[in-house]
Amino acid sequence: MEGVRTVLSIDGGGVRGLIPGAVLECLETQLQKIDGDDNVRLADYFDVIAGASTGAIIAAMLTVPSEHCRPLYRAEDIKDFYMDNAPNIFPKRSCSLLKMMIGPKYDGKVLNEVLMEGLGYTRIRDTLTNVVIPTYDIMQQQPIIFSTQEARANDEDQDKNLLLYDICIGSSAAPTYLPAHEVLSGDMEFNLIDGGIVANNPTLVALNCLIKEDWRYGNNGDLQPCTVKILSIGTGKTRVKKMYSAKKVSKWGVFDWIYQFRGKRSPIIDCFREAGPDMVDIHVSVLFRTCQGNYLRIQCDDLIGVEGSMDNSKKKNLNNLVEKGRSLLRRRVKRVNINTGDYENVVNDQRSNEEALRDFAIHLSNERKRRSFEA
Fold first, then answer.
1. Hey, which end of the chain has fewer CB within 10 Å, N or C?
2. pLDDT per residue over 171-190, tens digit each?
3. Worst-scoring range by mean pLDDT, 95-99, 221-225, 363-367?
4. How is residue 230 annotated by DSSP?
5. Which residues form the catalytic set?
6. Contact indicator for 62, 22 with CB cutoff of 8 Å
7. Which domains are seen in the chain, by residue range?
8. In this structure, how many other beta carbons lie within 10 angstroms of the beta carbon of residue 2?
9. Which residues 6+ apart lie within 8 Å of 232 measured at CB?
């Protein structure tokens, strides 16, 4: 394929999906203005849309087809999805310590009902662009990556051509929060938990998908940064730098790592959710160091206290997350420091994230027009 291939990647993070929701709404609005068409959708512009956990749900919403073979949902519908459903998916009633010791915090029934209603019986091969969703099979003890590309390529073997509903439920099944999800498909049995364990920032998973596509078409799979444009959107980082000290955690046992009374947090989950996305961002930043304009990472790095919770479904917190996403658009573009891991202002880039998104949207529009002209 000539030209530039385009990737959208959306992190996991529970109710914090409201943050990328605000960013994506802005991007879709800009694309509509640039192309003068209120009917265009994000799926019209991206070759690959990858999402993990809550990002998987967003990716599915952006690509599930209507009866007219157009995206069923707009980017602005993401906010309504979380505002309307999060309080019932993550009810505010207190959860006893005993219950948390013998089972997940939430039973997942509402999430199952909401996703079945919203996604129906659409299978991953039927999405409007290539969707990539990581999960983890707890029985096989290995990552399972579901993609539109693979489901379409293997016509004779449809074991991984699951319902989007099943894949999203599996990718969202965060340990201690939601139950694992069993799916039977042909001769295969999947026992799925949170895709965030595999890749809470699924950018590299999306890039691997492009490399596999090259191999399939007889190319050498030597993907060059200058031929890919990536928009990666995070669900926020907690500002606290000194959350746990070595002196403190050295005395912890299994229970302490799983649950902390004061913060009602799970330190072990905090660790893998914070470390994984940062490592991917650093790796991709190094990969694109000679072509930085082709990689845009938008991440809120100043969540405080309950803002960092994955399941705080109080209306006040949900509204605050929406505002966090909108205020993020007004801030200057930042880039990860590959040595320290901190997000820093880009010295030679005075743009806001919204301005950077507009420039990104122009490139997306131009690439779409180029393809239409050559078709």
1. C
2. 999 988 999 999 998 888 99
3. 95-99
4. E
5. 53, 194
6. no
7. 5-369 (3.40.1090.10)
8. 8
9. 9, 11, 201, 203, 281, 284, 295, 296, 297, 298
